[in-house]
Amino acid sequence: MTPNRPNSPYSLTRFLIEEERAGHIRPDLRLLIEVVTRACKRISIEVGKGALGGVLGDAGTPGQASINVQGEAQKKLDVIANDVLMEANAWGGHLAGLASEEMDHSVPIQDLSPDGWPAGNYLLLFDPLDGSSNIDVNISVGTIFSVLRCPEGVTKPADEHYLQPGTEQLVAGYCTYGPNTTLVLTIGHGTHAFTLDREIGSFTLTTRGMRIPEETQEFAVNMSNQRHWQPPMQAYVADLLAGKTGPRGKDFNMRWVASMVADVHRLLTRGGIFSYPLDAKCEAKGGKLRLMYEANPMAMLVEQAGGAASTGRQRMLEVTPTGLHQRVPVFLGSRNEVEAAVRYHHDFD
Ligand code: AHG
Ligand code: MN
Ligand code: MN
Ligand code: MN
């Protein structure tokens, strides 16, 4: 046997077992990651069916899409992905409860288990399908997830038990369903990418220790909201657009997929800043993106890759959550660029 020959595939399973041996992860948490990523493979298959699988379009009745707790029209794949993650995690014994962007409240595992499935030590949060407005046009979407510890002595966790700052996350990850399916994962020891080998059905380590360049000349934002932004964001982006002869002294390029997973995957691969600032449309809700399902997992992944993540005024991972579906402004990516965006916010305080 030649276990380390150059082209020998290094599977997610092997990676996790070696992390366990290094004392970075407990066995029950390792098995939980295996369950979640297995569910992602299943979602990848459903997404890949497209029109052939009847999975495109709105959920609900014809002409009347169902509306989720976020006030958004649900796509069929939002519901399918949520069901896949629920079903996969219900009986594993690793979770005390789970919470999703698509569900009004968190669900204790005990409530899913009339036959008494055992409750485990962890809480799972997920955005089952991110970027769902892109599903019908065959652009990358993804799943975002994070794991918290269930507080000591709690066997039937309620929403309040999930309200822990992002610094408490034990695991964060996302899976992108694009030209290929890639899992990006952190257990607090770097951020690593695994590509799904469709022929053997297994995630294979393809980048160990992703690093985000500190400097960038690329930004991602929905420019159509420009007129609704607050003064710090107006000033920041005006200076980016001013280019070489402006105060920033360099030209910037812009890219916006409108799937956070895809936009973040790009900056984890080659640098950049992603932002979803406060604007007049989302101000009353506190922002557009969700702290628990989107901002915090991405913030941990980005920090573990040497980048930074902020609300514009505070480190993202230190925000004390007040609600399961809480929204926040988001700036994350290349460290120096996030710090620049934060300076514009402080200048207006
Ligand atoms: P979701 O599909 O999970 O509701 O999230 C969509 C989010 C995020 O993926 C993306 O960055 C943003 O909404 C897109 O917003 P715009 O509609 O302003 O482009
Ligand atoms: Mn949504
Ligand atoms: Mn999302
Ligand atoms: Mn979603």
Descriptive account of the structure:
Helices cover 29% and strands 22% of the residues. It has helices spanning 12-21, 27-49, 76-90, 109-112, 231-242, 260-270, 291-304, 335-347, and strands at residues 60-61, 64-65, 95-100, 107-108, 122-130, 141-149, 171-177, 181-186, 191-197, 202-207, 218-220, 253-254, 273-276, 289-290, 308-310, 327-328, 330-333. Strands 4-3-5-6-7-8-9-10 form an eight-stranded mixed beta sheet, sandwiched between helices. The protein has a five-stranded mixed beta sheet with strand order 12-11-13-17-15, sandwiched between helices. The chain has 349 residues and is an alpha+beta fold. The longest helix has 23 residues, at 27-49. The chain is built from eight helices and 17 strands. Bound molecules: 2,5-anhydro-1,6-di-O-phosphono-D-glucitol and manganese (II) ion (3 copies). The site of one manganese (II) ion has 4 residues, from loops. Residues 212-345 form the Fructose-1-6-bisphosphatase class 1 C-terminal domain. Its main location: cytoplasm.
